[in-house]
Amino acid sequence: MNSNIFKNIHIGTLLKKRVLELNINESRICSFLSLSPVEVLDMYKKESIDSNYLLMWSKLLEYDFFRIYSQHLILYAPAASTITRNTSTSDQSSMPKFRKNIYTKEVIDFMTELITTQQKTVNEITLEYGIPKSTLNKWIAKYTKSKTEAD
To answer: Source organism's superkingdom (predicted)?
Structure first.
């Protein structure tokens, strides 16, 4: 897995990659997005695109491209519990409240790979990404064991 996919997101490149994987015809893409072929090609060159288009791309390509941004937030933005916040303000927010971060298989694989290849220590990951040591230790026990059994 390319570890930079979640750090340096270039959505146009990822869209193009998925289109090639699925071998989707350009005319189908243009029709679905109501865009010209030139506009579609321009999207492939963009680092970011409008969220409405990203939603349409996600439907067309049957892939949740928004999750890439969510993973970026999990990995590179401080967890809410580690930031001092004015609780009275956040309790009154009209924004939807989500459960705590749910780590995807890709994030777990990325973290366990960093540890098993000794690119980072458990302490370094805890400091850099805010993932608790107990969580990392559970992942190491569970997922590195299952990988060695699969080999």
So the answer is: Bacteria
Q: pTM value?
A: 0.62
CATH 1.10.10 describes domain 78-82+101-150:
yes
CATH class, domain 3-69, is mainly alpha
- CATH 1.10.260 segments of the chain: 3-69
Per-residue pLDDT tens digits for 128-139: 888 888 889 988
Rounding to the nearest 10 degrees, give the CA dihedral for residues 42, 75, 99, 10.
0
Q: How far apart are CA 8 and CA 101, in angstroms?
A: 20
C-beta separation of 60 from 43 below 8 A: no
Cα–Cα distance between 11 and 67 in angstroms, integer? 12
Confidence of residue 103 (pLDDT cuts 50, 70, 90): confident
User: If we measure between CA atoms, which residue out of 81, 137, 79, 71 comes closest to residue 107?
Assistant: 71
Q: Where in the chain is the domain with CATH 1.10.10?
A: 78-82+101-150
